[in-house]
Design goal:
CATH topology of the largest domain in chain B: Methane Monooxygenase Hydroxylase, Chain G, domain 1
Strand order of the largest sheet of chain B: 1-2
Order of helices and strands of chain B: HHHHHEHHEHHHH
Number of helices of chain A: 10
Largest interface: A-B, 61 and 58 residues
Largest sheet of chain B: 2 strands, antiparallel
CATH superfamily of the largest domain in chain B: Translin, domain 1
Number of strands of chain B: 2
Number of strands of chain A: 0
Shape of chain B: elongated
Radius of gyration of chain B: 26 Å
CATH class of the largest domain in chain B: Mainly Alpha
Helix content of chain B: 55-70%
Helix content of chain A: over 70%
Structural class of chain B: mainly alpha
Oligomer: heterodimer
Radius of gyration of chain A: 23 Å
Distance between the termini of chain B: 60 Å
Largest sheet of chain A: none
Shape of chain A: elongated
Order of helices and strands of chain A: HHHHHHHHHH
Number of helices of chain B: 11
Strand content of chain B: under 5%
Number of domains of chain B: 2
Distance between the termini of chain A: 85 Å
Amino acid sequence: MTNFVNMDMFSNYQKYIDNEQELRENIRLVVREIEHLAKDAQIKLQIIHSDLSQISGACGSARKLIEACAEKYVKLATLVPPGQYYRYSDHWTYITQRLIFLIALVIYLEAGFLVTRETVAEMLGLKTKPGEGFHLDVEDYLLGILQLASELSRFATNSVTMGDYERPLNISHFIGDLNTGFRLLNLKNDGLRKRFDALKYDVKKIEEVVYDVSIRGLSNKDKDGEQSAAPVE
Amino acid sequence: MSKHAGGNHRGNAHKKRQPQVAVDEDNPIVQAFRNYSIELTTKHDRHERIVKLSRDITIESKRIIFTLHSIDSRKQNKEKILEEAQKRLQKLIEVNFRAIALELRDQDVYQFRNAYSAGLQEFIEAYTYMEYLSRDDNDESPKSVSDWQALQSVMQYVEDPSKVKDEGASVEEMDVDEEKGGEERQAKKFQFFIDPTEYVLGLSDLTGELMRRCINSLGSGDTDTCMETCSTLQMFYTGYISLNLQRARELWRKITTMRQSVLKAENVCYNVKVRGGEAAIWGSNFDQKLAEDVDEGFY
């Protein structure tokens, strides 16, 4: 009499899960390489907080490292079977968000605007639409951008320390736009929402810097006669 | 200028308050975020719809399991109940899972796994329990439990072009209607993807039902069933602990629960043996279904 319990099923599942484990191992190896490159890029960019004259140099080296990451993503894309992006995505979401942040920071420092998702995807060699293969998830993009806000609030403080009083005003404007953008999103009660809720602290921090600069008349723009607009609390 | 904007944001630090300044639609950031917003909302909505469908599957599956537990050797109601359960399970496959499959067409099924996982696992539990109970009817060719490939073959669908009418009607209509698109229609097949891991998790819940059946059978004096369910349980447990897994916290939790079920069932068999069926005799005189009130099957 055949048993109700099908022991073959268990050995089949073991094979299935062994294959999955092997693939995960391979993915992890590539992700680790990306992590190293991203870390280097992040270290290179730390200089912006202590030496404003080295910004463009730092951006240049960061760009090279990001390009190297793009090659790794090509490798990653070949590992992941089509239609199974989200089965394995937990391995790379963190580092992808970090890279999105770094790219956004480089672009902001170089050009002063917010990098679009399309440009980020292009720089990392990824697609934008899930149907096209290994892609850049929109939530990852948004989470990466929120990291940018935190970094810029730090940068605003340090710019003042280094004697650049104009920069915080630009940053404030930029973060203000970003804040407006995020308010357009219909967020659910998830990780993105939680991270977005922290954006207001970045906004607050930058505004405090702007306030300090304007009330002491350190900013040139301010000297042009906008004193009356200083926030009163 | 920027000062003014800054002051405004400070005033709006609380989320609830609406921005007083109208959103500048020419701003590139605003334009980009409008697109991201649409994309996020589409995804959330799809997720919500799947969760809803999955919840219906969970509830119906639990009810089916509850009904299956009312099979009682003293009442001779087995055939009738099994038939009803099969019908209801079939309906779940044809309606609810089909609807989820439609939502997941051309999507990455793993992206929405959390949304349907609970319903799928509960369904697998009900389906395999039905299979288990159907089994000893025809002893000549007893079937083993369906594996995921077998379940997968059940969840195949063909697109229904008319959408309102059922499959049968549209086949008839096809003859009258037109030749064009007939082949196209045949090509449009889809399925509800059954992830082996979800299957293994769902099947592990079956052991809880077997334990319950084992205990209930003691209550109704059916000691053969006690022994039979217990040995099936032991085999499941052996199968599950034979798996060598990493990163499978959910499964390990279920296996721990399974061990408790096995121990309970083994204890029942011990009692049957050592007391020589006293409990069973007592149970058969006591005309009430034991442990029904503790059943999880009701919502």
